[in-house]
Amino acid sequence: xxxxxxxxxxxxxxxxxxxxxxxxxxxxxxxxxxxxxxxxxxxxxxxxxxxxxxxxxxxxxxxxxxxxxxxxxxxxxxxxxxxxxxxxxxxxxxxxxxxxxxxxxxxxxxxxxxxxxxxxxxxxxxxxxxxxxxxxxxxxxxxxxxxxxxxxxxxxxxxxxxxxxxxxxxxxxxxxxxxxxxxxxxxxxxxxxxxxxxxxxxxxxxxxxxxxx
Amino acid sequence: xxxxxxxxxxxxxxxxxxxxxxxxxxxxxxxxxxxxxxxxxxxxxxxxxxxxxxxxxxxxxxxxxxxxxxxxxxxxxxxxxxxxxxxxxxxxxxxxxxxxxxxxxxxxxxxxxxxxxxxxxxxxxxxxxxxxxxxxxxxxxxxxxxxxxxxx
Lengths: 213, 152
Prior knowledge:
The structure holds 2 protein chains of 2 kinds. Chain A is mainly β. Chain A contains 2 helices and 17 strands. In chain A, strand 12 (about 150-155) and strand 13 (about 160-165) form a beta hairpin. The longest helix of chain A has 4 residues, at about 100-105. Chain A is elongated, with a radius of gyration of 24 Å. In chain A, about 25% of the residues are buried. By secondary structure, chain B is mainly α. In chain B, a hairpin with a 2-residue loop joins strand 1 (about 5) and strand 2 (about 10-15). The radius of gyration of chain B is 15 Å and the shape is globular. Chain B starts with a strand and ends with a helix. The interface of A and B includes residues 48, 78, 192 and 193 of A. Chain B: Keywords: Cytokine, Disulfide bond, Secreted, Signal.
């Protein structure tokens, strides 16, 4: 009895997660027939049952949103995809063990940069996640990561940068030259889990100094 | 940096970040070898952070002894890279265990009923599985133990 190799039907089944938005993605055969369909199941590590993801049964696209199904931060998860082509051949592949705490990447923060005459104020807005507390409140990244802090840089010129860092959300770079353009970059850092967001950047010009001298 | 663990009246500092970093390098390949995904040894009902503070030191001390005596000693690494990483992890946990033993010596690591009960449950999960499979599974669950310590 010769079992047919169907591994080409399905590759790279993995979670892509950012700010706790957990998307399962996979690849099919490069020239996979349009009639290839995919079905997704998921399970909690340590439990027996595989659960079918509603809305991702016999689909043709190669991704499925499992954010709600994998939203418990203290749990670890697996997901698997079964691909079936028009000739009835099928293949099933599973992800690695997934922990959204460990695996999620962090998006740039949302920041308002406010120019003044001799300073620039930066206000970092909270980043809400799909994760909800038991009381139903949506959690922010700050709620989830106790050691989260913001790292800010202001490029003064080619050789000189100012740095600020802290857990608060309001920062101000002071002692700047009026009517001058500066480039600010703001990142979220989570030291314990070696996470760092890509930077939010704002180009800002300080106001002209209209005081009579 | 260093993290201070407050386990009841036992206070120790540990490089949890460094241990986590070391484990994250081998996590996927170690966990991929664990084929029994219906079973979990370190379960939420026995978590360190869910244990009353006075019993946390004893519970962690026993879990670390389990890892050092019956996991790291019996683990057969597939290659030299993993061997080196696992050895470093073992040494880090050994350092923590020594600190906990100091607390024990100073009477600040009591073993109450809760610690004994939770550890015996963990041990029974551990002993339900075949020897070589349980070693691989326990090693793959180090991220759970590190998260428990993080949240303790």
